[in-house]
């Protein structure tokens, strides 16, 4: 437990070191594309395969025969159809594609779930998380740690984030809410908090805004006698020309939001619309299992997916 808390503290105390490299825009949360392949259905459906199944699953397609692929696809369709009406609508397919792309996050949540769910009710109360993470130190009011103020700040920040992720306000996080707590940048309703936490990380004078000095200081700390790298000059120009939209020398909340959460194309939304458009033969803007299986090569091809292994496991998190 002590190691866990020390690890958390390291994330806070060493944030500057994390970003003190010339790699660009590490605080910016870009939406990743669904595939590294070009989206060109005239030549192949590899983009669609990776979008529908996820990149890792798509790698093992060649292990299955076409018949096996169709059988697995039929079972996947049943899971996508969450309202069990026999039709896949845009919302269901959009959610599925986003879920496949977010699988690495959910695997991370699942890995640590049992550590926090102490009463094994498949939910995590704030008290469970707090006691597991900070409980050893709470009795001594953090007197046993070197930087008591930092740990108290961590606790307050975690509690605020937990309450924001807990959408129904019952003090208990479902798996989805706990995922939002651990990965707030992935959830629209958590994005204001992501902006707020970013400002708090960088804003050293506590005025609620980010100056050029604070912006550069988050990424670069000069050594004695060291000449300023060229990339730092580039970042200063970016701040002046693009980040500080109203040219007052500071980035406010909306300007920070524009910086770290750039408005981008929702690739999962576009792909869901594309798959429905291409396979919806009766043009009711929904697709059924027959329509999907008739176009199975677009969804899974004649190749294999290790999704078959997943079918033997619990999919409550889906």
SSE blueprint:
Elements lengths: L1 H12 L1 H5 L26 H8 L1 H4 L7 H15 L6 E2 L1 H12 L1 H14 L7 E2 H13 L9 H18 L6 E2 L1 H8 L8 H12 L7 E2 H6 L12 H14 L6 E2 L1 H8 L6 H13 L7 E2 H6 L1 H4 L7 H4 L8
Antiparallel strand pairs: 1-6, 2-3, 4-5
Q: What share of the residues lie within helices?
A: 55-70%
Q: Give the biggest sheet.
A: 2 strands, antiparallel
What sequence of helices (H) and strands (E) makes up the elements? Answer: HHHHHEHHEHHEHHEHHEHHEHHH
Total number of beta strands: 6
Beta-strand residue fraction: under 5%
Specify Rg, calculated over alpha carbons.
23 Å
Instruction: Give the low-confidence spans.
Output: 9-24, 303-318
Q: Largest beta sheet: what is the strand line-up?
A: 1-6
Number of helices: 18
Overall 3D shape: globular
What does the average pLDDT come to?
Answer: 82
Would you give an account of this structure?
The longest helix is centred in the middle third of the chain and has 18 residues, at 148-165. The model is unreliable at 9-24 and 303-318 (pLDDT under 50). The protein has 18 helices and 6 strands. The chain has 318 residues and is mainly alpha-helical. It has helices at 2-13, 15-19, 46-53, 55-58, 66-80, 90-101, 103-116, 126-138, 148-165, 175-182, 191-202, 212-217, 230-243, 253-260, 267-279, 289-294, 296-299, 307-310; strands at residues 87-88, 124-125, 172-173, 210-211, 250-251, 287-288. Helix 9 crosses helix 10 (175-182).
């Amino acid at each position: 437990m002590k190691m866990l808390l020390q690890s958390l503290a390291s994330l806070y105390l060493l944030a500057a070191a994390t970003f003190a490299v010339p790699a660009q825009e590490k605080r910016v949360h870009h939406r990743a594309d669904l595939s590294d392949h070009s989206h060109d259905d005239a030549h192949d459906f590899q983009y669609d395969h990776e979008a529908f199944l996820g990149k890792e699953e798509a790698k093992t397609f060649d292990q299955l025969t076409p018949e096996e692929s169709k059988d697995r696809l039929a079972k996947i369709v049943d899971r996508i159809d969450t309202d069990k009406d026999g039709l896949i609508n845009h919302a269901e397919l959009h959610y599925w594609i986003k879920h496949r792309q977010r699988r690495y996050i959910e695997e991370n949540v699942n890995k640590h779930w049992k550590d926090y769910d102490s009463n094994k009710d498949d939910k995590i109360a704030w008290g469970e998380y707090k006691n597991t993470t900070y409980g050893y130190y709470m009795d001594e009011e953090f007197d046993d740690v070197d930087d008591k103020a930092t740990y108290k700040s961590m606790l307050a920040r975690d509690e605020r984030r937990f309450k924001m992720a807990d959408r129904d306000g019952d003090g208990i996080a479902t798996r989805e809410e706990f995922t939002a707590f651990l990965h707030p940048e992935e959830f629209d309703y958590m994005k204001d908090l992501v902006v707020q936490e970013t400002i708090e990380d960088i804003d050293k004078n506590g005025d609620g805004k980010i100056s050029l000095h604070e912006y550069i200081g988050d990424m670069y700390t000069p050594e004695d006698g060291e000449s300023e790298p060229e990339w730092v000059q580039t970042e200063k120009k970016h701040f002046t020309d693009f980040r500080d939209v109203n040219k007052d020398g500071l980035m406010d909340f909306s300007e920070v939001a524009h910086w770290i959460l750039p408005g981008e194309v929702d690739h999962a939304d576009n792909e869901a619309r594309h798959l429905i458009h291409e396979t919806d033969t009766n043009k009711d803007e929904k697709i059924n299992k027959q329509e999907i299986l008739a176009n199975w090569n677009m969804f899974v091809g004649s190749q294999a997916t290790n999704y078959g292994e997943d079918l033997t496991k619990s999919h409550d998190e889906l």
